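User: quick one, fold this
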Amino acid sequence: MKYFTFNVVGLALLAGSAAWAEPVTLRLGHPVFEAHPIHDTAVRFKEAVERLSGGDVKVDIYPARQLGDVKELAEGVQFGTIDMTVNSTSAYASLDPAIDAFQLPGLIPDYEGFVTMAKSPEARAIMDGLEAHNQIALGVYDGGLRHFMTTGKPAESLADMKGLKTRVAPNKMFLDAWGAVGVNPTPMAYGEVYSALETGTLDAVEINLTSIESEKYYEIGKGVTLTGHYFWPGFLLINKAKFESLTPEQQQFMRQAADEIVEPQVMAVKALDAQITKHLEELKIPVVTPSDAFKAELTAAFKPVIERYEASNPLIAAFAVKARSLTPATK
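Assistant:
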């Protein structure tokens, strides 16, 4: 009888183990159209994790706000109604202010530097803070350097920007930074930007070239100034409880896939920027490279805001120190 009981228990344990090892399919939503690098991030992750796991982990992608805009996706993953997202880091700064480090103006020198910072211990320390908010940040990727697009003539000095109703993502640091520049910063959901530019509710938008292309803002914009003020990072996030329900092997496949795609994803955005710049020029939309004097004006305007945010959080300060140690690849 004891022998029989032992085997019953053993079979139960084996059955439990087998249940844990069953294949899993995860729903991943994001807010952009399929031409955008954030979608490319999702596709690269899907392909990598399905390859590494031999199909044990599958990912179904829902692009273009099918599961909600930026805010809804952030809340969905936090509360477990959505498994995963690739979503703008700026949407999470209200949960953890250290996240603002990723978008301090002028801090990361170029795309190569972004790759270094994305893989750095300083970035990981910031991302780990999201575990307290029921989600795991598997990695950080990029949607493209941000520039300045207007519905009128392109900005060629700080004076040209003064007073322009300029869309910024709903984030306090962006309001502070662009208020210091002298525009009229206007927080607005991403999905509302096109119509606001079209109707004149907005005069300008600080935006990445990849969004100008994927959202067809070039149909309205009359000039682009290549300010390159900060990147537009996106976290690859999974609900914490969902992640912890996976086997250790499945979790490892997820982390390995997330790490593997960082460099190819980011460098693909660099190449895409060059293609989009050429396309804008073909469309006869002025693309302006700021003068050294204009760059100096922007740097001076942003400086007190950067200093205030660095002083506010040791994780931001550590990230900034690391970023400033990088040598630009173009030099």
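User: anything notable?
Assistant: The first helix runs from residue 2 to 20.
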